Amino acid sequence: MPLSSGACTTRSTVERLYAVRSAYSPGLTLAWHCYAREINSGEYDFELCRKLLKEYLSVRQYFSGDYYPLTPYSLEATVWMAWQFQRPGQTDGVVQAFRREKAADQERQLRLKDLDSDAIYELKDFDKTGTERFSGRELMETGLLVKIPPRGSAVILYGKQ
């Protein structure tokens, strides 16, 4: 079982989203000392911190479930990395996608795994308002269209309706 956590520091909101979401795992370490200068100067974005902690708490249950890579593994800065976690025997999960800094394509179709092709799934992207619905067949055959900026990330919850 992959149990790990880490800390990272970045300046911009996009970078911070990418870095923190990259560290999501069954455990999370909040390393406040890394941000002491920002906190003491009043520059720390506590609202973003609350958003990310709330997001993490709603997805952490999936990280000890089944893992499906949605893109080939690579260390190159020119690619996207994406994967899916789904709890065994359940009908819900999470998709994480990361567009590395030199990846040219602005969007990717990610074909999800192990869904009920006849069911309808509701998806919630944490960076968008509202939800979307797709059939399991569409998500597995056509894929989920994900658009993110360079060095950006997306976290999307899904559940069978």
How is this structure best described in words?
The chain is α+β, with helices and mostly antiparallel strands and 161 residues long. The protein has 2 domains: 13-62, no CATH class; 66-160, Immunoglobulin-like, CATH 2.60.40. It contains 4 helices and 8 strands; from the N terminus they run H-H-H-E-E-E-E-E-E-H-E-E. It has helices at 13-22, 36-41, 46-59, 136-141; strands at 66-69, 80-86, 92-99, 107-110, 120-125, 132-135, 144-147, 152-160.
Features:
161 residues, alpha+beta, Immunoglobulin-like, 2 domains, 6-stranded antiparallel sheet, two-stranded antiparallel sheet
Number of helices: 4
Tell me how many strands there are.
Answer: 8
Question: What is the CATH superfamily classification of the largest domain?
Answer: Golgi alpha-mannosidase II
How would you sum up the major sheet?
6 strands, antiparallel
Low-confidence stretches: none
CATH architecture label of the largest domain: Sandwich
Distance between the termini: 29 Å
Alpha carbon gyration radius: 16 Å
CATH fold-level topology of the largest domain: Immunoglobulin-like
CATH class of the largest domain: Mainly Beta
Helix content: 10-25%
Tell me the number of structural domains. 2
What is the molecular shape? Answer: globular
